[in-house]
Automatic annotation (TrEMBL):
GO BP: DNA replication
Name the UniProt record assigns to this protein: 3'-5' exonuclease DinG
PANTHER family: DNA REPAIR DEAD HELICASE RAD3/XP-D SUBFAMILY MEMBER, REGULATOR OF TELOMERE ELONGATION HELICASE 1
Sequence similarity: Belongs to the helicase family. DinG subfamily. Type 2 sub-subfamily.
């Protein structure tokens, strides 16, 4: 069957089962890989077309006034699908509507084989940034003239399908063979398509870039060659040739503006390296700090033959350095250099573990089948094996954990898999690189557990350094949750469940005694029961002690700090007994795994099966150690422990955390005193132009670091107006309805002036949720597209992109939206800060650190809570102006910035801008005039 019919519909909404109707049909016919026919018509839906659909599609009620009803064209449409595949971009949507209308018109439903281009694109283009039709066509450079019109969408879907066929034709025989095994779980009827290209590819000449091992096809890892450069250029001449007039920057960037602060920062970093000192540099927005620190780092590494490590907090910045800054620098400087990106083992795929999964009968569902299919195609493309290159389905990440390099216990260097390990290759690249880019998490793991994760280094640059101490605390602390334990126990499985123990036993039929099997099943059932029981009890415990608490953290969880000697002793004794029981059962399970291993050893146990059993025993032992540390070991003043429960989550969704109360001495001892030169940089390190707070927090007092604040090149006084209303209701404990109402009214008034294009930052998820609900209520005719973190679906990046797609949009964010979100130009004209970003006073870490500081005779508010809030506020403020042509309003609903004694610390920590403290009415008039 070589006839494919592509369909796209425009409708009045998303729900055919209710009252939504088709308003336009577009059909395109493909035969012999050529578009041979097309069909299009508007339809009368017998109802009003909603305004937002008219905005999206351009189809109005007038357009369809004289259009036919569906039943008038039903036979003509169904005739086009005879003896054909039906193709759509999201088949369930289009076919659901079409069959719904056919049923209502007393016609038979279509039962054609289907091909879904969303699903096939996910499999065949696993690195695409998005699978929405317009973003996918951009990625594949398919011209899309009229998005959201049925015939145009059908044409580009047809062109997309032809691209998918081209991709299939390029895949190795082995990959197509594996895809055929997975086809039965897919929504698309793709067997004939996959099989056709598999048979064609038997005769295709082998691609030199693709290697095949044990039935797996993967892209070869490049042979690493190390060449050492001789530096014959002084650092001054090097910088002159880049930064000064007629230098390489000016020649390579058409929009280049010289920034004095950029060269100043490069020189200071080089000085710190030369004098073996640590340094703190605050480089305000617009400095161009990534380039400013990369240039001296590369010069130093190449001239001294000593690598420099660069650590960032977000993967977004790592990607930016690798994909934007490094290629630019290669054009700017006259000598070659080597750069490597290194992440934790869990980021890299293990070919060995994937192969082991594929040789067993795959215990699959749709998400796992889709995940494996995506990974198989991605392996033929990826040079790194880093899972961050692709977007797996949500439960696909659980599967990836099983096949990541994290699961490669004790890889044997003489093994054939060792030479095919993406993680080992990444480590090797890092060992030969001048610059190693990593993240704070891996850097911290390396600091506290020097297990040769990072190659040896003496100099490092830590970007986004205002996060460094929090990452250190997390890594030195513990984290345990029910889901993780439940998942691990489930993966082990009973002997009659298709999981790890069953799979291993299937390799040695009747090798294990019936008695041991019965014992194992009982041990596992008991451990699952006891674990569930413990976490349900902990959930109820937190619910009761925090009864009526509405101050959810910014992630929508209730937090409770626990101290054994201050808890209700009767209930705490019950908890300790339950924990002891769980630990006892986990020990029995460890013993059970060792017993299984011993019985199977008699039958020549395979090395990989032995490794799996022992690795599982190690993971269970870690749970025992963690539970004992949380509940059975005496509390220490140096440590804070707390629990979090999902406010509206499952009744056993409990998360346990512990962190040190102070990491300053720790960092001094194990990091700053042993490294030659560490440079810490960020746009937000100072408070009132002083570095004192960050110096004390990181334990740098004795190190006398160099410090420098580099001012932004932007003219904030001309680009920003700071407005604070003096007539907002005050928030009293538990009564913030009036404040939320005033905030929402101000947001909508400002939105009228700025045409939306507004980011609203909250400090509490609960307040964000309630404001979102009220804004929807107050807004007439959905004037503005409203996006809210945790409510609208999608990641932070996806919400930002959706926000930028609409002309009139408002974006509500909390937590991660206070920083790292860049929305330059006219897309963002107004920033609303709802409350000054103080952590809630009962936040577990804040409580514990406050107590610790009090005991040292210090003021916890002035030395911890306030500096933290000021740094967060500076991050939020920095969202508005991202270029010299941006202008906008920062509207702060919290009058404490003016009326409280500490307000001046916030004002003096941001660039000088015109400040207005007036009635909301007057501020709106001023905003209107200014725009």
């Amino acid at each position: 069957m070589q006839r494919y019919v592509v369909i796209d519909l425009e409708t009045t909404g998303n729900n055919p089962a209710k009252t939504d109707k088709i308003i336009e049909i577009g059909i395109v016919v493909i035969e012999q890989d050529t578009i041979v026919d097309s069909y299009s018509t508007l339809l009368h839906p017998n109802k009003e077309i909603p305004a937002f659909i008219t905005n999206l599609t351009g189809i109005s009620n007038e357009d369809v006034a004289d259009a036919p009803l569906f039943e008038n064209i039903a036979d003509e449409v169904t005739a086009m699908f005879e003896n054909s595949y039906l193709i759509a971009h999201n088949v369930p949507f289009d076919l659901g509507f079409l069959n719904g209308e056919l049923t209502k018109s007393d016609r038979k439903k279509l039962k054609n084989p289907v091909l879904d281009t969303v699903e096939l694109a996910r499999i065949l283009f696993p690195s695409a940034p998005s699978y929405k039709l317009n973003q996918l066509t951009d990625y594949l450079q398919i011209n899309h003239e009229n998005p959201h019109r049925a015939l145009s969408d059908a044409f580009v879907t047809a062109k997309l399908f032809l691209k998918l066929k081209e991709k299939l034709a390029s895949l190795p025989y082995e990959t197509l063979e594996q895809l055929l095994r997975l086809e039965k779980w897919l929504k698309s009827d793709a067997y004939a398509l996959f099989n056709y290209y598999k048979e064609q590819n038997v005769f295709v000449e082998k691609n030199d870039e693709i290697a095949i091992y044990q039935g797996l096809a993967y892209r070869r890892m490049n042979h690493l060659e190390k060449e050492d450069n001789v530096m014959d250029l002084s650092f001054g001449d090097y910088l002159d040739s880049i930064y000064e007039s007629n230098g390489s920057l000016e020649k390579n960037l058409s929009f280049y503006e010289k920034r004095a602060g950029q060269r100043e920062m490069s020189e200071m970093i080089f000085d710190a390296f030369q004098t073996r000192q640590h340094a703190l540099i605050e480089a305000e927005t617009g400095t161009g700090k990534s380039l400013a620190y990369l240039l001296p780092a590369i010069y130093d590494a190449v001239s001294t033959h000593k690598r420099v490590v660069i650590s960032t907090y977000t993967t977004q910045l790592q990607t930016q350095l690798l994909e934007e800054e490094i290629p630019l620098i290669r054009r700017l400087i006259p000598f070659p250099f080597r750069v490597a990106l290194l992440k934790g083992k869990g980021h890299y795929i293990s070919l060995e573990k994937l192969h082991q999964e594929l040789v067993e009968p795959l215990q699959s569902n749709y998400d796992i089948a889709l995940t494996v299919a995506m990974l198989l195609v991605w392996l033929t493309e990826t040079k790194t094996g880093d899972v961050d290159e692709i977007q797996l389905p949500s439960s696909g990440y659980l599967f990836f954990r099983r096949i990541s390099a994290d699961m490669e216990e004790g890889v044997d260097p003489s093994s054939q898999w060792f030479y095919r390990s993406h993680y080992q290759y990444a480590k090797k690249r890092a060992q030969q690189a001048h610059i190693v880019i990593t993240n704070h998490a891996l850097l911290c793991t390396d600091i506290f557990h020097p297990s040769s994760l990072l190659p040896v280094y003496e100099r490092a640059i830590i970007d986004e350094a205002h996060h460094f101490d929090a990452t250190v605390s997390k890594h030195y602390g513990l984290k345990l949750d029910y889901m993780h334990m439940h998942y691990t126990l489930n993966q082990l499985g009973r002997t009659d469940e298709q999981k790890l123990v069953h799979t291993i036993l299937s390799h040695y039929p009747s090798a294990l005694s019936e008695e041991t099997k019965v014992l194992w099943n009982k041990l596992l059932d008991d451990t699952r029961y006891e674990t569930d029981d413990l976490f349900r009890y902990l959930f109820q415990y937190v619910s009761k002690v925090r009864k009526g608490d509405k101050s959810f953290s910014d992630i929508g969880r209730t937090q409770y700090r626990f101290e054994a000697n201050k808890e209700d002793q009767n209930k705490w004794t019950v908890i300790k007994e339950m924990v002891s029981r769980v630990c006892l059962h986990l020990r029995d399970l460890v013993h059970g795994l060792v017993m299984i291993e011993a019985e199977l050893r008699v039958n020549q146990l395979h090395q990989e099966d032995k490794e799996k059993l022992l690795a599982s025993a190690e993971r269970l032992q870690i749970f025992i150690d963690q539970l004992e540390q949380f509940f059975l070991v005496e509390d220490s003043a140096q440590e804070v422990k707390w629990m979090e429960i999902e406010a509206y989550g499952a009744k056993n969704a409990v998360y346990l955390y512990s962190e040190p109360t102070d990491i300053a001495n720790l960092l001094t001892d194990v990091f700053f005193s042993v490294k030659e030169s560490i440079v810490l940089t960020s746009a937000t390190l100072t408070i009132e132009n002083s570095f004192q707070y960050i110096v004390e927090r990181l334990g740098l007092q004795t190190e006398n670091p160099l410090t420098k604040k580099i001012a932004s090149p932007f003219s904030y006084a001309d680009q920003v107006q700071l407005m604070v209303p003096n007539d907002f209701p005050t928030i009293t404990s538990g009564h913030n309805d009036e404040f939320i109402h005033a905030t929402c009214e101000a947001v909508l008034s400002l939105a009228e002036i700025t045409n939306g294009r507004m980011l609203v930052l909250f400090t509490s998820y609960d307040m964000l949720r309630r404001s979102h609900s009220l804004l929807k209520e107050l807004m007439e005719n959905d004037t503005y597209a409203l996006f809210a973190q945790g409510i609208s679906s999608g990641s932070r990046e996806r919400l930002k992109k959706n926000f930028q797609t609409f002309d009139k949009a408002i974006l509500l964010g909390t937590s991660s939206f206070w920083e790292g979100v860049d929305i330059p130009g006219e897309d963002l004209s107004c920033l609303v800060i709802v409350r000054l970003p103080f952590q809630p006073p009962d936040h577990p870490v804040l409580e514990a650190k406050s107590k610790f500081l009090k005991e040292q005779g210090k003021n916890p508010f002035m030395q911890y809570a306030l500096p933290n809030a000021v740094i967060r506020f500076k991050q939020g403020f920095g969202r508005l102006i991202r270029s010299s042509s941006d202008r906008g309003i920062v509207f702060i609903c919290d009058s404490r910035i003016i009326t409280a004694r500490y307000g001046k610390y916030f004002i003096r920590s941001i660039p000088k801008v015109p400040l207005f403290f007036d009635t909301t009415h007057e501020l709106m008039n001023r905003a209107e005039k200014w725009f």
